[in-house]
Write a structure and sequence with these properties.
Among the domains are: 33 residues, no CATH class; 37 residues, Arc Repressor Mutant, subunit A (Orthogonal Bundle), CATH 1.10.10. Helices cover 56% and strands 0% of the residues. The chain is built from six helices and no strands. By secondary structure, it is mainly α.
């Protein structure tokens, strides 16, 4: 902010700090319009439609199902199932270590 005020030019400030002009422009807009110097807080919404404990129990009871099948069963998207399983630390099925004969 001080550099822009000192140079009275956003382009000169972007060159001084070797950052993009649009970056300086968005920072200045945030400062003057929203009176904000810090970045916005990241918005993270928990999946609301899905009971995590019920999903975890169901996955343990039916480990051979695909994520799409879990999604259909619970009435949510496969992406939501994927995110919840990742947060629960449940990984996908691994291939067995059986060696193949040629």
């Amino acid at each position: 902010m001080k550099s822009v005020e000192r140079h009275n030019n956003m382009l000169e400030a972007s060159r001084e700090f070797e950052i993009g002009y649009e970056t300086v422009r968005s920072w200045m807009r945030a400062y003057y319009q929203e009176n904000r110097l810090k970045p916005r807080e990241a918005y993270r919404q928990e999946p609301y439609k899905l009971n995590w404990e019920e999903l975890e129990r169901f996955v343990k009871e039916n480990p051979d199902w695909y994520q799409v099948e879990y999604a259909i069963h619970f009435g949510v998207s496969r992406g939501q199932i994927c995110k919840v399983l990742k947060r629960l630390g449940i990984t996908h099925k691994k291939k067995s270590n059986v060696s193949r004969t040629r």
